[in-house]
Amino acid sequence: MNKEESIKLLKESIADWNKYRKDNPNWIPDLRQVDLRQADLRRANLWRANLRQVDLSDANLRQANLITTNLSEGNLSGANLWRVNLRHVDFMEVDLSKANLVTTNLSGVDLRQADLWEADLWKADLRRVDLRQADLKFADLRGADLRGANLNDANLNDANLRQADLRQADLSKANLTGANLSGVNLMDTELDGAIFNEKYILSKEGQ
Fold this sequence. Notes:
Distance between the termini: 58 Å
Structural class: little secondary structure
Radius of gyration: 18 Å
Strand content: under 5%
Order of helices and strands: HHEE
Largest sheet: 2 strands, parallel
């Protein structure tokens, strides 16, 4: 199936798309630079697909299969990724601003330099995620699991980190000005060069 045919199938029927993928397990869809703005892709099987530089802004990807998908440099601003398993996805330099990532599994994902401005990451699994130089300004990270995450030089200005677990995370040089750090667990967290707002009090549980 060529690129034009695959785009048409994906847009017309997710059921037929998933059936074709099931019948052709070795086929890897090439959807680079495709315009899928506001597309309804709920439960779509996008496993291993090449979605580099794709426009998925405001798309509904709820319960889609995106494991090992290449989404680098893509636009997922405002996309619904609720409860999607995003393990091993390439998100480098992706735009996830205002995206719905509530309770999403992002463990071990590369999110270096990603735009997560105002993203909803409530109770998301962010263990060991690479968030170096990521923009998390105004992001909702309440109750998020950030154990072992690399947040070196990340922008967490005005982010809500209430009850987040940051044990063994690297927050060196991170900007936490105005961040809500109430109840945050910072045991064994690297804070060298991190910038804080004095009005917030850190809670280092276990220390």
